[in-house]
Every structure is written in C-alpha cells, then in structure tokens.
Amino acid sequence: MEKDIIKQKAIEQFTKNAEKYVLSKSHAKGEDLSLLADWLQPQSNWLVLDIATGGGHVAKTLSPHVKQVFATDITKEMLANTQRHLNEYNNIFYIMADAENLPFLNDTFDVVTCRIAPHHFPNTSNFINEVTRVLKRNGLFLMIDNVTPKERNLAEFMNRFEKLRDESHARCLSTEEWRELFSTSNLLEVKSNTRKKTYPFSNWVERTANDQQQINKVIQFILNANQETKSYFNVKSFNKKIQSIQVDEWMVLCKKGN
C-alpha cells in the first residue's frame, strides 16, 4: 500500500512539474550526460531503453548514435511534454511504463539506462530484476543516481531532507546496497564514478515543494543538523538562508552476464 502511495505521489509530482524537469539545469546540463557516449560506445544498430526518462535528456543524447530509443515513464503528462520538446528526434518512441514492471519481452535491448530516477522507486530489487530481464546477453546497463554515504546517520539525514522537499522520494541507496542488488541479478560492474553534485538551494527546493511552509521545513531541518553533517553535505548558508547543498552522485556501467 505504501509503495503504491509513493508511485502515485511520483505521478502527481511529475505531472505538475513536467516542464521544470525538462528545463532543470541539474537534469539537462549534468556533466554525466557528456560521458554517456564515451562509456557506452553506442552502435548504430542498438535498441536502447531509457527508464523513467523524465525530461528525455538521456534519450536525446543517445538518439543520434543508435537505431531506436524507447523512452518510458510512469507519468503520461511528463512523456507528452518531453515528446513535444524532442519531436525532431524521429527514432525516440514514448511508452508509459512502471520501472518495476516493464512491458517488454525478455532479452530485447542492447542497452538500458536510468538517470536520476531510481530514488523514486519503492522496490529497487524489482527494478533491477526487470533491467536484467529485458537486457540481451552481454547487454549494458548504465545508471546514474544520487547515493547516500555509508554512514547510517548521514544516510538517514539525506533521505529525510529529500523526503521533506519531495513527497515522491522513496529512498536513495548507498553504492554498497546497489552493488549487492547487481550481484544477485547477474549484472557485472564494468566501470563507476562518484562525484559531488552541488544544488543551488532555491531552485532545488522550489522544483518539488508545494508551498513556502514545506520549504521552511526543509530549511529548518538542514540548519538544525550538527556540524559534521553540514560539513559532509557542504551546506553553504548565510544569515539563516541556505545558498547550496551538495550530494554524492554515482554513475555506474554494468554488463549482463551469460
């Protein structure tokens, strides 16, 4: 029941903010986008599945290099808005789909991607199982998402402030937790990289908050943290106003085993 509520919150959130996610600098201009082709070395005959495509930034980046991209999202309005922005890309197809229950046959795709979305999925084990199922043998899976520190108190703090600002947030995992899921699903890690990602606070919190009261709760929660926590997340503030906050983002490339 709780998992269904999270998915409904995600649909409501992305329906309301579809245009914001297309234009969001952290989504549209992320440094990781420029690495996609280098890491994947895409081929012109490849079929690509982009799960939870959001503003379609991965689909747009890979489209010129591959045969077809299937961009899926659980939110119809998000897909429709993204299609309007990317209507010149004739090899991108838009399909409503739940990341934890994909409407595709086994062994269909050469590549599966998912960027800045898994923290919205209430059952990441189902998600990873589905990724493995639809990938061809030796197919590639590239995932990019925010990850928690391994320290429990810092992980709990991060998931708490994410949930406070975004009701559709489920949970950020640590890299260790992701690797455990990969190992049980026949996904072999090929390459990975962790970077610090800085959010200008106002843009970040206003993109998902419903009102000023919600924003104030996020501000107060972060400002009340101890110095160790503020230091880890590099919280920059002045006169009780937060300028920026920093989180860890993980980019990982896996190959499906035989």
UniProtKB/TrEMBL annotation:
SUPFAM superfamilies: S-adenosyl-L-methionine-dependent methyltransferases (SSF53335). It comes from the Bacteria. Belongs to the methyltransferase superfamily. This is SAM-dependent methyltransferase. CDD domains: AdoMet_MTases. It comes from Anaerobacillus arseniciselenatis. GO terms for biological process: methylation. The keyword Thylakoid does not apply.
